[in-house]
Amino acid sequence: MQTIQPTPEASTEALFSAAFKAHQDGAHALAATLYQQTLAQAPSHTDALHYYGVLEHQRGAHQAAATLLDQALRLNPLGAECFSNRGLVACALNDPDTALHCYHAALALRPDYADAHNNLGILLQNRQQTDAALDHYRQALSFEPSHTSAWHNLGQALTRLKRYDEAQHCYKALLALAPKAAESHFGYGNMLKAKGDTEAAIASFQRAIELQPGFTQALVNLGTVLGHQGAYHEAEQHYRQAIALDPSPAHLVCLGAVRGMLGAHDDEEALYHQALAIEPEQPDARQNLAWLYLKRGDYRQGWREYAKRWRPCDYSDISAEGIPKWEGEPLAGRRLLIAGEQGFGDHFQFLRYARLLEQRGAQVDACVREPLLEIARSVPGLTRVWSDIPQDGNHYDFWVRLMDIPSYVGTELSTIPAEVPYLFTDPVKIAAWKPRVEAAAQHKRCKVGLVWRGSDKGVPSRMMTLSAFEPLLANTQVAWFSLQKGPAQAQIDTLPASLRPIDFSADLHNFSDTAALIMNLDLVLAIDTGVAHLAGALGKPVWVLLPVGADWRWLEHRSDSPWYPTARLFRQTTHADWQTVTTEVGTALQTMLDEQAT
User: Fold this and answer.
1) Domain 427-597 - what CATH class?
2) CA distance 565 to 308
3) Is the pLDDT of residue 478 over 60?
4) For 461-471, what is the mean pLDDT?
5) Which residues are bridge partners to 542 per DSSP?
């Protein structure tokens, strides 16, 4: 490439033309020198000021860019493109008000300026003005239908609004315009992932990586989608590739999490500490490390970290306006409101603390999720139970999040309040179930409830297929009862008729109904779901099947639970190997039956 060499004899316009050409070619150092020489000869050269400012912005010198662009605009206040670029620089300097002014000024000068509409859309979207942002993206496309950035931004905004069909149209248009642009496939993959079309998302991320092998975020997102499918080894490979390119704290945490799901907790811990050495307040590393402390039984450190709720995305924003938050103050004669949080299993596990708080002198109320209202009213220590934070909470002295309580009462492994039962259900309901259960069991020696799958939005390693239980269902001494709710119930019809569990799930309208049925059974066999916790809280024998990367509440390596004296834990030793676990359960079940016969 031939360029003009800067000489004293070179004309101003020749210098500028050479600078602009070098800038376009990516020769930024040469372009800077030529822009400087242009301005040395002609300090009021508005184009040189403008594009030198753009160059400085591209090189990360945003304040210098702002100074240059402001000079250009003072000399030529009719430069729409300069105003739009000044808006970009203002955004980089975290000055959204100036950016807004600049974009509006650009559009006042050129209402059909697609770039300015697109840039203004980005700013408005970041300010949560989504409808206005959508309007400007669409205006950009009306003036320039091939504007790939506007298609991408419109698709991304619609994805966040869960308007997936409209977003898909945007990405299809984008891919038609830029089929070999890795970013196009990456954006489409993110939309497909949000939509729940996992296989198509994987294909899109893979295509993005084929087109741009060093596309770090595509590697990470591909790993995340694979991890959500339970393909932890494959996810690990992609995370390691991403870390080789960019060992950022977020990427180290991703690898740590997947190593934890594979049971490699020493590796997991080391990766979190490595991330925190770079970014001491990295929220994912802090939260995951808290879970790891709890899993290892280090409750003193674990509860302290856990109470900080490092990852707001995992927890609903709970507050009780006008009521002081309880953090361990004396409770004698005080009225305390417990705010339930997270999943059903979390409620079942931690509502036990109501009795302990009452013993400390408090009058305790609780607000819980609607399906738990009836059974939560049975918890010893609770005076009243609500389905929401009471609007008039002035008569409470304190409130506390349910899962902060262990931290504030100093729970250690040896001090877990493990007296069961602490959940009860209506005796009339229990009695009503009895003849139905006995008739369905047909005098078989043991009645066992079965849950094989958690929420479809849950962790894949807490999900099994009913077919995995076929060897157990073939035991003719056992009457099996499905306690499964949700789409997984349909799996019952895929089994041979002789192996299908008895299914009363249509009559299980809430957890009180499920509890009444459980009270008529001899045993509950479940993966890690709310029903496992419900059975344990009812004081019923419960066998829990756990993956290699089991949840923190089941601790490590144990076959019993300090939280539930009637629980027995059956653990995977190899990721995804449920057959070994069900074989072990089958042996234990037959041993129990043989002991009952003697």
Assistant:
1) alpha beta
2) 29
3) yes
4) 91
5) 524, 567
Please give the Cα distance from 204 to 215 (Å, whole number).
Answer: 13
Residue 364 contacts residue 383 (beta carbons within 8 Å): yes
Specify whether the CB–CB gap between 106 and 98 falls below 8 A.
no
Architecture of the domain delimited by 335-415: 3-Layer(aba) Sandwich (3.40)
pTM above the 0.90 mark?
no
The structure tokens listed for 153 are 């931004």
45 contacts 16 by C-beta, under 8 angstroms: yes
Q: Backbone phi, then psi, for 482, in 5-degree steps?
A: -75, 125
Could you give the CA distance from residue 535 to residue 423 in angstroms, rounded to a whole number? 9
The CATH number that domain 202-314 falls under is: 1.25.40.10
Stretch 558-580: mean pLDDT:
96
The pair of three-digit structure tokens given for residue 298, joined into one six-digit string? 């280090």
- Which positions ≥6 away from 538 have C-beta within 8 Å? 420, 421, 423, 424, 425, 515, 518, 519
Q: What is the pLDDT of residue 315?
A: 60
Question: What letter would DSSP give residue 499?
Answer: G
Mean pLDDT within 27-50: 95
Q: How far apart are CA 225 and CA 61, in angstroms?
A: 37
The DSSP secondary structure of 286-330, one letter per residue, reads HHHHHHHHHHTT-HHHHHHHHTT-S-GGGS-----TTSPBPSS--
Residue 494: both structure tokens together: 């895929």
Calpha distance 534→564 (Å, rounded): 10
> What pLDDT does 516 receive?
97
**Domain locations in the chain?**
202-314, 335-415, 427-597
Domains 202-314 and 427-597 share a fold: no
Which has the closest alpha carbon to 35: 83, 72, 1, 80?
Answer: 72
Whole-angstrom distance, CA of residue 206 vs CA of residue 94: 34
